[in-house]
Amino acid sequence: MSSIRSSSYRRFGLAVAGVAIALATAGVSYGQNSLRTIKIATAAESKPLSWGAIGVEPQGYEPDVLKAINAKLPQYKFEMEGAADIAQETGLATGKYDMASGGYYKAPAREKQFLIPDNPMGASLIKIYSRKDSNINEMKDLVGKNIVPVTAGGGIYKFATQWQEQNPDYKIEITASSAGVPYPDRLKEVQSGKYDALVLPSNLGEQTVIDNQKLDIKASEPVAINNTYLLIHKSEENKALLDDVNRVLKELKDDGTLGKISQKWFGEDVTTYIK
């Protein structure tokens, strides 16, 4: 073989190798760039469910569950930030956030507005919070009482409405509001006498507030048990995210991961209440 041909083959081989390296590098770059960032709003003042203001990494049951989900879905990068109640759903509706977690229940208004996985994230126990000197222990004791307004279209509103329909002999007044007043302030309003009672899931950190603030507030036995869900911004792009999250939530429930996280933050496995 002539030196000219040998030199040509070497140049050709180097060129092919160069193209291969370029393609491989492009593939790595593409793979990195294809990682989709998912912005998530978590409850900001609901210890041990979730807490952490903007700029502070959220902590609690739901942030740990979100981390466990992300570990099984490496095609996404979850970014969490704490947000007030009203800011969560407003941000989710406008697309500022891709997902929101805050101990949410399924409700007709939410199912129409957002994508919601079939598999729940956890479970919550609904309790009535009232002053220790009150005679309020169950739903029927709320007749004639001034109850803290609940989120319009939310799970507590749905629960109270259904309870009223099933118990027509007991007329309770439930007012819907979109004010988004933080839970600690709501408890203080009960303490001050502005309201007689507050109906809320017990996994939002109420007992911590009661203990820290030394409030004369008592919690009833559970008046209802509900599954809690992630909410996802409704868009074509997020349908794949919905399917991925739904699948992984079932895996985490089946392999006991959700139960372990629940034991860590609540001292009990609330997933045993999942219906």
What would you say about this model in short?
The chain contains nine helices and eleven strands. The protein is α/β, with parallel strands linked by helices.
Q: Report on the biggest sheet.
A: 7 strands, mixed
Oligomer class: single chain
What's the pLDDT, averaged over the residues?
86
- Fraction of residues in β-strands: 15-25%
**Form type:** globular
Count the E strands: 11
CA-CA gap between termini: 78 Å
Question: How many helical elements?
Answer: 9
User: Unreliable segments (pLDDT under 50, ≥5 consecutive)?
Assistant: 2-32
* N-to-C SSE string, H for helix and E for strand: HEEEHEHEHEEHEHEHEEHH
Q: Would you tell me the structural class of the helices and strands?
A: alpha/beta
Task: Tell me what the structure shows.
The protein has 275 residues and is of the alpha/beta class. It has nine helices and eleven strands. The chain has helices spanning 3-33, 61-72, 85-94, 108-113, 155-166, 183-192, 206-213, 238-254, 257-266, and strands at residues 36-43, 45-46, 50-51, 76-83, 99-104, 122-131, 150-151, 176-177, 197-201, 217-219, 224-232. The strands form three sheets. Strands 1, 4, 5, 6, 9, 10 and 11 form a seven-stranded mixed beta sheet that branches. Helix 5 links the parallel strand 7 and strand 8. Helix 2 packs antiparallel against helix 9. It is globular. The N and C termini lie far apart (78 Å). 36% of the residues are buried. Mean pLDDT is 86; it is low at 2-32.
